[in-house]
């Protein structure tokens, strides 16, 4: 494997798909994406036939580990975000991480950039939060000196969950339900900005440090919904629903959908009222912070990427 190769485990999701676009625009051509979501890998292959997009279950040692030999960098992206089965979180957030760290050491990879999450400092108590905390600790205890990036809720092109799912749901229904009064503080982060931070780490060969990468604008959930409605030109009515009823409807949905787009655990995290540290990451990493309104417009107006829909 070339010393210029950049490996993206879990790279067929939101961050990975955006990162491939931006890495290529920065001149990086030797990219390897390893993921076990076949449909989203195929989306990546169609858009970028010039990169390696390989099916791999990272929770199992295998032939995928050959790519790590003397690679320039690994950006650890793989994560189980939603779902109701704890075993999947343990497998995809913890077991996979142990295997990747092993491959990095054996392959003498030059650099690791670990993508953690702001939830490691959250008061939420759910499968995602708890396993992301353990995942970050595995990386920090590994002895591999690497930057640890903790992004808040992200949005942008290829958003299969979060704001992307909300926008598609909004276009299909006449009434859009919001839990309670909708006044739940969010610090959404534009994935384009986050990808530029990752690239800055690779360009500079950055070592060490834990960085809370929060969106610089604090916005209530209901106002985010209104901004999305405005950006996509939807006419759906936004209706506030009592929290208890909203919770029950999500619980009922999960009885019929093994992988629902929004779970009761995620609802609890939404209303936890976390407020995350805002650091001067534009200055630290030398990147521009895109204003929320401009980022929303860019997300939903791109002639190609705004039309690509990934699977859950």
Could you describe the 3D structure shown?
- This protein is α/β, with parallel strands linked by helices and 312 residues long.
- A seven-stranded parallel β-sheet has the order 3-2-1-4-5-6-11, sandwiched between helices. Strands 7-10 form a two-stranded parallel ribbon. Strands 8-13 form a two-stranded parallel ribbon.
- Helix 1 links the parallel strand 1 and strand 2.
- The longest helix is centred in the first third of the chain and has 22 residues.
- The mean pLDDT is 91.
Helix-strand layout with pairing:
Layout: E1 6-9, H1 14-25, E2 31-35, H2 38-47, E3 52-55, E4 73-76, H3 86-107, E5 111-115, H4 127-140, E6 148-151, E7 154-155, H5 162-172, E8 175-179, E9 185-186, E10 189-190, H6 191-204, E11 210-213, E12 219-220, H7 221-232, E13 237-241, H8 243-256, H9 264-270, H10 281-285, H11 292-301
Parallel strand pairs: 1-2, 1-4, 2-3, 4-5, 5-6, 6-11, 7-10, 8-13
Antiparallel strand pairs: 9-12
Helix pairs in contact: 1-6, 3-4, 5-7, 7-11
Mean pLDDT: 91
Relative strand content = 15-25%
The number of helical segments is 11
Span between termini: 31 Å
From the alpha carbons, calculate the radius of gyration and give it in angstroms: 19 Å
Short description:
The chain is α/β, with parallel strands linked by helices and 312 residues long. 42% of the residues lie in helices and 15% in strands.
Keywords:
single chain; alpha/beta; 312 residues; two-stranded parallel ribbon; seven-stranded parallel sheet
């Amino acid at each position: 494997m070339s010393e210029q190769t950049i490996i993206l485990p879990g790279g067929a999701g939101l961050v990975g798909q955006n990162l491939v676009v931006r890495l290529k625009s920065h001149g990086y051509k030797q990219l390897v994406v390893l993921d076990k979501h076949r449909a989203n890998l195929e989306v990546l292959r169609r858009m970028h036939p010039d990169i390696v997009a390989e099916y791999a279950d990272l929770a199992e040692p295998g032939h995928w580990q050959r790519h790590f030999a003397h690679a320039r960098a690994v950006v650890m992206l793989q994560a189980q975000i939603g779902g109701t089965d704890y075993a999947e979180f343990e497998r995809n957030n913890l077991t996979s991480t142990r295997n990747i760290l092993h491959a990095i050491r054996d392959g003498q990879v030059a650099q690791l950039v670990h993508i953690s999450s702001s939830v490691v400092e959250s008061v939420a108590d759910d499968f995602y939060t708890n396993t992301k905390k353990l995942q970050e600790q595995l990386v920090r205890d590994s002895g591999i000196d690497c930057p640890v990036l903790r992004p808040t809720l992200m949005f942008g092109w290829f958003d299969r969950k979060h704001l992307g799912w909300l926008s598609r749901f909004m276009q299909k229904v006449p009434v859009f339900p919001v839990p309670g009064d909708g006044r739940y503080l969010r610090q959404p982060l534009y994935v384009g900005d986050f990808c530029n931070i990752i690239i800055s780490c690779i360009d500079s060969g950055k070592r060490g440090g834990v960085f809370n990468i929060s969106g610089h604008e604090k916005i209530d959930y209901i106002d985010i919904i209104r901004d999305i409605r405005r950006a996509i030109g939807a006419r759906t009515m936004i209706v506030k629903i009592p929290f208890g009823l909203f919770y029950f409807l999500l619980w009922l949905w999960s009885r019929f959908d093994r992988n629902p787009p929004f779970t009761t655990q995620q609802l609890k995290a939404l209303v936890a009222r976390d407020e995350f540290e805002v650091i001067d990451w534009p200055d630290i990493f030398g990147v521009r912070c895109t204003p929320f309104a401009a980022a929303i417009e860019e997300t939903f107006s791109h002639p190609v990427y705004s039309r690509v829909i990934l699977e859950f």
